[in-house]
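Morning F.,

Quick status update on the modeling queue. The single chain you submitted on Monday has been processed. Sequence for confirmation:
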Amino acid sequence: MTDISLTEAAREWLAGNGGEVTLRLSARHGCCGGQAGVPVAEPGAPRKADGYAAREIDGVRVFVADDLGAGPYHIDVEGLFRWRRLVVEGEMGRV
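Structure tokens below.
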């Protein structure tokens, strides 16, 4: 099972933004042809539930991509006022 934690600030921000978050890998391409999967957290549920497992963590419904590694992953929020966004610390994967 994937190890995921949320900060109190992330839980509060997500509670005010639907109470759901999607955790997945996003492909990043290097300048010399390499590529890596960087973990990203996006508010809301995925468009298609196929390939995701839903869990509840501290009152937040978390949709975890099947191709995500075991972790650990730590979800936080950064920024000010309406320019706040979710950030993830955790292992990178292959895409």
